[in-house]
C-alpha cells in the first residue's frame, strides 16, 4: 500500500538556505501572552510549535536558531505557560505555545493554559501552520488527536515534526513512523510530509527551516 506521507523529504537547497538565514538572522523574544487580547499585531505570517508537555518544543526552537537559551527549556513538563512570541527579523512571528496534556501545575492553571491554546489555534488569522511535535519514543497519543481534531475543525494547516529521534533506534523509529501515518490519515489538515528531527544531533533542522520559510514567502 502506498504511504500517504513523505517522510523526511530533502528540502530544496535554495529554500533551505533562505530558511537558514531567516532563523540564524535577527531573532528576538517579544512577549509572553496570557490572554487573547494581549496578542501582538497580526501583521505578518505566523507559525507556531505545539506538542505534548516535554516533547522538546523549546529545545527545537533553540536548535533552529542556534541560540542556547532563546526559549526556556526544562525537564519539568508544563514550564511553558504562555504563548511566547519571537520576531524573526520582522519577517514572521514564531510562537512557542504551552504544552498540552500532562503538566505539573494546579488543575485550574492547566485549564487556563489549554483554553488559551485552543482559542489561539482556532482564532489567529495570520497563523499559516502549526508544527505539531510528536515524541519519536511514544508516537501519536490521544492528546495529539484532540489538537489535530481542533485544527481540522478550524481549517488550520499543520505539519508533524517527530522529535528526539536520537533517543530511539532505527527499527523503533520506523515502527513509530508507520504507526503515525496510519493515525494521521484521518486528519484532513495535516500536511503530507513528516519531518524527523533531533535537537541534540542537529538532524532535520534544515527541513523545518525550509518548511517555515515556504510559509513566510507565501506572505
TrEMBL record:
Pfam families registered for this protein in UniProt: MMR_HSR1
Function field: Necessary for normal cell division and for the maintenance of normal septation.
Keywords: Cell cycle, Cell division, GTP-binding, Magnesium, Metal-binding, Nucleotide-binding, Septation
Cellular component GO terms, alphabetical: cytosol
Family: Belongs to the TRAFAC class TrmE-Era-EngA-EngB-Septin-like GTPase superfamily. EngB GTPase family.
Organism taxonomic ancestry: Bacteria, Pseudomonadati, Pseudomonadota, Alphaproteobacteria, Rhodobacterales
GO molecular function, one term: GTP binding
Protein's recorded name: Probable GTP-binding protein EngB
Organism superkingdom: Bacteria
Domain EngB-type G: 43-218
InterPro entries listed in its UniProt record: G_ENGB_dom, GTP-bd, GTP-bd_ribosome_bio_YsxC, P-loop_NTPase
Gene3D superfamilies noted in UniProt: P-loop containing nucleotide triphosphate hydrolases
GO BP: any one term: division septum assembly
